[in-house]
Design a protein that fits this description.
This is Dienelactone hydrolase. GO terms for molecular function: hydrolase activity. Keywords: Hydrolase. By secondary structure, the chain is an alpha/beta fold. 45% of the residues lie in helices and 17% in strands. The chain has 7 helices and 6 strands. A 6-stranded parallel β-sheet has the order 2-1-3-4-5-6, sandwiched between helices. Helix 5 (116-121) links the parallel strand 4 and strand 5. Helix 1 packs parallel to helix 7 and helix 3 (49-70) packs across helix 4. The relative contact order is 0.14.
């Protein structure tokens, strides 16, 4: 099973998440695509960061616990984009997914101004992080921390920003998404 957790304003219909989910569907995997309404929730948007993080974490734990209980799966793939990476790491840190049968795909992880990196360190499983060179989280100290993370592979996409737009325009953005999907597919094959 693949559980796809979207970003604040980057839903599962957007290119990077849509293409990733389609990759897993083509291989016969059950795919659950989530839709968060945080971007329309004025109370949430106005809450202090700590309250926002706590809600995102609680929602992630609830979603993954519910979906994991539906039936036993040999492998669970958690795929998060930006805000969705906070949801997935909360579920991982809570022990809802056994590290030996769970793989994490962090698409543009929310590393700035969040507890994500410290939460990621608490999970002993394997994962792939995909980050664009124009993403605000593309900082040397953050790349180094990701590369030191046990079981984590970091893949950088030149020119892509946090929303996976590209500095050279829409055609280049499509190529950047294709490159990211290629990286996910190759990593997934090694992890089967």
């Amino acid at each position: 099973m693949a559980i796809v957790l979207p970003g604040l304003r980057y839903g599962c219909g957007r290119p990077l998440l849509h293409s990733t989910a389609a990759l897993f569907e083509r291989t016969g995997c059950d795919v659950a695509r989530l839709a968060f309404d945080y971007a329309e929730d004025e109370a949430f948007l106005g809450a202090p960061d700590a309250e926002q993080f706590a809600r995102i974490a609680a929602d992630g734990r609830d979603v993954v616990a519910h979906l994991s209980a539906m039936r036993p799966y040999e492998r669970v793939w958690l795929i998060g984009k930006s805000l969705g990476t906070l949801s997935m790491v909360a579920a991982l840190s809570a022990g809802l997914c056994a590290p030996e049968r769970t793989r994490a795909i962090w698409l543009t992880p929310s590393l700035l101004g969040t507890p994500l990196l410290s939460w990621m360190r608490d999970w002993p499983g394997r994962g792939l992080a995909v980050l664009g060179t124009e993403d605000p989280s593309n900082r040397a100290e953050l790349r180094q921390a990701l590369r030191r993370q046990f079981g984590l592979t970091l893949y950088m996409v030149t020119g892509a920003d946090h929303g996976f737009d590209h500095v050279e325009g829409p055609d280049a953005a499509q190529r950047a998404v294709a490159e990211a999907i290629y990286a996910v597919r190759e990593w997934r094959e090694r992890e089967l």
